[in-house]
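[audit] Reproducing an earlier prediction to check determinism. Same input, same settings, fresh worker. If the tokens differ from the archived copy the diff job will pick it up downstream; this log only records the rerun itself.
[audit] input (363 residues):
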Amino acid sequence: MKKTTRVSLGVLAVMMVLTLSACGAKGASSSDSKNDDSKKESTFSSALVTDIGGVDDKSFNQSAWEGMQAWGEENGLEKGVGGYDYFQSGNESEFITNIDQAVQANFDVIYGIGFALREAILSEAEQNPDTNFVIVDDVIEDLDNVASAVFADNESSYLAGVAAGKTTKTQKIGFIGGTEGAVIGRFQAGFEAGIAAVNPSAVVVVEYAGTYGDPAKGKTIASAMYAGGCDIIFQVAGGTGAGAFSEAIAINQGKASDAADKVWIIGVDRDQIEEGAYKANDGKESNLTLCSTTKGVGATVIAINKLAQDGNFPGGKVETYGIKAGGVDLANDNLSDDVISEVDNAREEIIDGEIKVPTGLAE
């Protein structure tokens, strides 16, 4: 039977004091010492297998890797076998190979970062009952060696919708998703509900790229949306979303920093304000990240690793992280004070149960 718990991430999140990034070869571990038998067998170790975005995607995978690094450093561990590491996937065909490599390297807990790895984690968990696995952003039930970590992305997206609905001047707002499915559907449902709550006359233009690893496609979609009148785009597309940032920068660089027709991007999974930095044609530094939905992926890695270290790996459980638990939220970035006040009110109403955010597009 599925068991659901809510875990607070607030205390653990402060451990992530450094924003770190790394890059490894596709389809292989980032470590060159995978067969180093000198590591102490008693050392608790943990690794993650990325989705195709990689640990430098400035989004979901990067957040997970930052948490893994923070946990490793906090425990005095080294990157590699016997400590902590990542296995970067260039495409979906590499998921099983990368998980196999992590199993063979005897990592105690292995994470599948993203719902796309669900079937690969399920298969490997069934074949390796003595290894603990975590699927992030999806659910695997009835296996004692698999923990599931899911996020109430609809709640943070609702806040983003409130921000977009109160900020738009054109009354036309874009949404770029990676691939269609339940997870991105939660984002879209929450976003549209937030917009409708504060600006029911606003139109939402939705397009799915069908991929998380194609910045050029993201740029093309964003270009069409901006040309069609959208002045804000919420990109939920991993590496593909980086192209939306590129297009928004290209447009805004031709305008003054305070231009009335400036276009905006809403970041996803981590505060993406750095990705929105640019220099306007008046020579001033500016920024086009309106706000960012944030997700405690890194803090989740820390939390579950700590439980496993203490002999309390939450196998067979579904850990749910929402606004109340501190698992998702909204970074204000460039919101006006009035809009921030609206967002704050909506956040409290979600926490108090006064606002019931839809969890999917069918609601």
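[audit] rerun output stored. Observation attached for the diff report: The CA atoms of residues 149 and 319 lie 5 Å apart.
[audit] end
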